[in-house]
Amino acid sequence: MGCGSHDEKCRKVCHEEDVCEEHEHEHKDDFTCWLFEVADEAWTEVLKEKIKAHILATQKDRMEELAKIVAEGNGARWRNKWEKKQGCFDFKEKICKFFASFKK
Length: 104
Hints:
By secondary structure, this protein is mainly α. It has helices spanning 5-17, 24-27, 30-100.
C-alpha cells in the first residue's frame, strides 16, 4: 500500500508545521502516510454525516421538496433526450429509405 506522491505531501506538511521534525522518517513510510490519509478521509466522512444530519434536522421538508423538484426535472431531461434520439433515428431512417428507393 503505497501513497506515491502523498509521501512528498507528508514530508512537506511536517516541515511546514514544524510539529514533528524529529519524526520525519515516519512520514517516509508509505504505511504511515496511508494511515494519515485514511484518518483524513474518516474525519471528512464524519463531518459530512454530521452536516447531513443537521440539514435534515433543520430543513427536512424543504429538502424533500427540493429532491422532488430535482428528480422530476431529471426525469423530464432524460425523456427529452430519448425523444430527441428517437426523432434523430426516425430522420435517419427516412433518409435511408429515400436513398434506397433510387433505382440504378
